[in-house]
Each structure stands twice: as structure tokens, then as C-alpha cells.
Amino acid sequence: MKFVHSTSSTGHHPIEVTRVADLQWHAVEDDRTVGRGNASRRPDGRLFISIDAWHGEVFDHIADAMLTDLPTPLYTVVDEADHESRSAWKRAGFTMARREWGYDVPTDPLVTGLGPVRPPAGVTIVPFGQAEEDPLRALDRRVRDEVEATVGWRTMPAEVLPRPAGITVLDPSKYAAARRSDRYVGLIRIAPLPRQPRIGLIAVRADDHRLGIARALLAHSLDALHRSGTASAWAEVDESNAAAVALFEGVGARRTAGTLELARS
């Protein structure tokens, strides 16, 4: 696929924006590529776009081409501190949909205060790599349905890894679980990234909220990371999720970044 979408000029040489693939655009000026646009569909079905351009006018031309070619709604993410990018997306008609806080989470129980935390009566923690797949997948589907029925899964930290249709638990070894009697009632997922492990999800069944299960899962997981020599983990929390914000800030997590999700209808 190679369709010339538009031709314009910055005042020096003409700029040609071409859709070179189904979800990819290039801007060329004087035989040089001066910008690229990409689109990708998240597992939740939403279409996110990104633009890398040498200067603002090229950004605007690529944005115009992409917005003409693609159906709405469209989404993008920007660093909250990147005011130039925020302004560029605002020119393209994008507005803020939500904000995620990024937290640096200490693992030392002397810092977090989680050393004495234990699961509530009748609940046991199933360590990483030991959770049974079928109950884990059943719990994952349950909490997703509960979140979608209330605030919506779009308020959870972005999931960008491709996966087979209907499969949400790709690698059970990344999960620890909380078990009550014969069922799992809570889970935590940690991705062992090279620079800093990422806490991707903490979730508890709605009818088991406010019992301290999430705090016990976090205590278990951070202790395991601390014993392995990891000083801190990374977590992202939607600013509207008061319970999650309180959980992380209550263990000494330090807010170090903010990410904005922008949308255009």
C-alpha cells in the first residue's frame, strides 16, 4: 500500500504525506523523511495513534492525513511534562480523557511498613509461579467484568501486549494470588522488566473488598522483590482510583511522572 494523501509546503520544499501501510504514514520533504505517523489497536479495541515529526508544521500535516483516513474515536498518550506535544495534539482536536500517575515503589519492608502485614483470616497467598491457571483465568475474567461494569476497563493502566482473542492471562508465572477456601479472590501481576519491575495489576473481587487482601498481596510481592535484591518497582495508577492511590502512597511510593491519555471523537 502506498497512497499519496496530501501535498503541502513549509516554505522551503514541498512536503508529501503518504500512507505507506495500513497503519503507517510518512512525511517526505526534499527526498528526506521528516516525520512518521503510526496507529495501533489496543487489546481493548481502541485505536491509538502516535506522530514523530521534525517540527510542528509537519506534525500538523501528518495529523490531518491520519485523522482523514482513520475512524474515530482516536486516542494518544503523552508525557504530562511534554507541553509541546500536548499543544500539538490540542491543535489536532484532542482533549484530555484521563491521567495516570507513575509511582516509584520501594520494596524494603522497613520503608513500606508492610513487614507485619498478613492476609486476613481464611485467606492465603499463592506465590508467584504457583497459581493454578484455570482459577487464575477465571478470577481475571471476573474482575475485568466487574471493572467494566463500573468505571470501565479503559481506566486501568494500558495493556499493549498482543494476545489471542479472549486470553488475558498470558504468563501465569507473573502472578501471585489470594485464595479463600477453594477459589481465588485476588491477584497481582508483576512484569520482571530489566530496569525496574512493573506492577501491572492488583485486583480483588468486589465482594472481597475492604478486607486488606490487596495490601497483603502487595506486601508479599514487594517482599519477594526485596529479597531478590530489587530496590524498587514501578506502578501506574489512574488518578481517579482513590483506593489504589491511597494504597501506594500509604507504603511510601513516590509519584515521579504523569501520563495523559488524550482522545478525539
Automatic annotation (TrEMBL):
Annotated ranges, domain N-acetyltransferase: 123-265
Organism domain of life: Bacteria
SUPFAM superfamilies: Acyl-CoA N-acyltransferases (Nat)
Pfam family, one: Acetyltransf_1
PROSITE patterns: GNAT
GO molecular function, one term: acyltransferase activity, transferring groups other than amino-acyl groups
InterPro entries assigned to the protein according to its UniProt record, in alphabetical order: Acyl_CoA_acyltransferase (IPR016181), GNAT_dom (IPR000182)
Protein name: GNAT family N-acetyltransferase
